[in-house]
Design brief:
The protein is α+β, with helices and mostly antiparallel strands. It is built from three helices and four strands, in the order αββαβαβ. It is elongated and about 55 Å long.
Length: 95
């Protein structure tokens, strides 16, 4: 029984990574900025956090894509705090 519970726990831990991507131009681009954004209580206690992608890339026409990523470390921190603290990585890619 303990092995089954441990297996379920490990599968849940490995499945915690996710990525949301908005592709603006068809290119892959290069990473212009990466910023960790923090949220509290599943986002209920969040402060508005924005990144001006046009300012990072030097114009809106130079923005290739933006991503919000939940990495393994982000998922682990969220799990350890019972989702009281939930960090995400925000990435902006430029031409």
């Amino acid at each position: 029984m303990k092995k089954l519970l441990l297996s379920i726990f490990m599968v849940a831990m490995l499945g915690a990574c996710s990525t949301q991507t908005a592709i603006i131009n068809g290119n892959t681009g290069k990473l212009g900025k990466q910023d960790m954004q923090t949220f509290f209580v599943h986002g209920l206690g969040e402060q508005q956090q924005t990144i001006d992608a046009a300012a990072v890339c030097g114009g809106a026409d130079k923005v290739v894509k933006v991503e919000r990523v939940t990495s393994f470390v982000n998922g682990l921190l969220s799990m350890l705090t019972s989702s009281i603290y939930t960090p995400y990585d925000a990435k902006v890619y430029c031409l």
